[in-house]
Amino acid sequence: MYAQMYINSNPRVLIFLMHHSSTTLATIILLLCMSGAAHSADFYVSPLGQDANSGSSEAPFATIERALQAVRAYIQHSPDEMCKIWLDDGIYRIDEPLQIRSEDFTDIPGLTISALPGAYPSISGGRALKNWERTTAGLWKADLPQEVLEKGMPRELFVGDRRAIRARYPNTGYLRVAKAGEDRRTYFYFEENDFPMPVSPEQTELILLHDWSISRIAIKAIDRTAQKLMTVDSIGARQPAFFNIDNWEPQPRYFLENDRQFVDADYEWYFDTSEKAVFIQLPVGQDPAILDIVIPVSPGLVKLSGNIDRPLKNIQFQGLTFEHAFWNIPAQGYAGIQACHYDDRPGPPQWDVVPAAIQGSWVDQITFEDCTFRHLGGSGIWLGTGSKNNRISNCELYDISGNGIMIGEGQDRKVNGEPWWKVASDQVAIDNTIKDNKISNCGIQFFGGVGIWCGLTARTSILRNEVHDLPYTGISIGWMWNPVPTPCRENMVEGNHIHHIMQKLSDGGGIYMLGLQPGSKILHNRIHDVSINAGRAESNGMFLDEGTTDVLVAGNLIYNIAKSPLRFHRATTNTVRENLLFCNEGEVPIRYNTTNENDILKIDNQVLTKGDDGYDQQLRLDIERWDSQ
After folding, report:
1. Of 456, 529, 524, 527, which is closest to residue 487 (Cα–Cα)?
2. Across-strand partners of 573?
3. Same domain, 548 and 460
4. Of the chain's two ends, which shows fewer C-beta atoms within 10 Å, N or C?
5. How far apart are CA 451 and CA 465, in angstroms?
6. Can you give the CATH number for the domain in which 454 is found?
7. Single pTM value for the model
8. Residues 230 and 275 in one domain
9. Domain range spanning residue 533?
10. How many whole angstroms separate alpha carbon 305 and alpha carbon 369?
11. Strand pairing partners for 323?
12. How do residues 530-567 score in pLDDT, each as one tens digit?
């Protein structure tokens, strides 16, 4: 049977058979092997297929899960062969993440899940909403089935390739807190007529912006007489303790989401918990029956699971689109800390992380190539504990609620009751590569999201990516706020183009770095257009924060930065060499916050200030030189 499947799915064999019909099957396969043809088993999947089929090109499966089952069965008999799953054009909808585990795919030469040539398959965790009804208020209503409601309160809705707007007030910009409450945590005062009174305050969400993170939390009550807004729990993370409402700004920014009163534009929507229905405003004459209106339901899309004794190895994803993953915030609110790490209340005070649509641990030689990650409710892709020799290349990531790409982990995991980085440093994520990707519009829900986040990692290579249009930092690497030794070392950030970032929050930069990272280098990056400085702290081309030590910053081009191109804060010894730093009038090229300026070795840097003779010409020449490299 497997030999016949091999023939049916291999065009080279079929062509050979057409011209050599009298040749035996065994002879054909032997000839192909002798001629150097690689052993492989190919399985095909199509939205028009059936899972009862054989999985050949003529009789494809209908689901990816069925193809994975076929691969698991096949490698029991032929463990030394490569396997390929080919996806035809179309949408493959799932309600739960696809599971790929090392116990099912141990030591195989490789498994590739790929688009057929010319096909654009999408793995979607979304459910298409049907049975729309027009309301007397002119909105469209769709009741949600029970199995969708069991996933949690919907936070996102997509109309075709458009992210619908969760109804908010104001539509653009922000309101300002009039005064923080006496406890500085659970309530604040607002000005009269700041916002229309929500129809259902208990299902309305407050979004309050701290300098480099946000809180999203349900409203408990609104007292119009006292002009007081109260929340169901404390605004801001419990740890660190300085996340008070007015710690950074005395009158911080905020806005409100999810109420009927806020729907005043096309493609705005809200979810009504009492009616268990979604309501949306569409353009006049637009029939939702002919639209692809999708609500995410699957909590992630792919889970790659290895373990310390048996890593998951040799899995490749090529030419696929991953979209519509669901993640709901904790019941007591999302209290962001930094880079989509948050205070997971009501549990013990520790940092949890917004999960990713594609999530892996103990993975080795996993590749994502020419893939698209979009319309995601959490983060994009995260290769965490024990990940090594993996590669993400030539991919596009956009319209993502949290971080884009994540590598490694932070400090919290314990091994035998001790921090992993102290007692099991060999478990560090190492030798992973992120290159030639386009990453934009992350942090859509959680403004502290970054394009690329790497925690305590070793020999991570971040090469030639374009990262742009983000609310906070472009690339963040390191996760220790002092120079204490950790496994973090020899990381490379080179040749990236980072621009139009820090558009909502502050105290970050095109590249943000933390902690002792011996042998790490930031080379030949182009960073520009950090023009918005919101919040109390400033934003920079690069922000080398607490504990940054033993890092080489060389050959970078930084311009159009509202504040200083480089900033060090509580850093120690580092080298800054041959950088091209273009400054605004009145701004210094390097700012030192609680950093000994003499600890920063500066060699042959070019500094020009706007208004200097030759500023525009030199900048143009430097940009052309960078583009030609």
Report:
1. 456
2. none
3. yes
4. N
5. 10
6. 2.160.20
7. 0.93
8. yes
9. 336-341+400-411+421-628
10. 20
11. 124, 374
12. 987 778 889 999 999 999 999 999 999 999 999 999 99
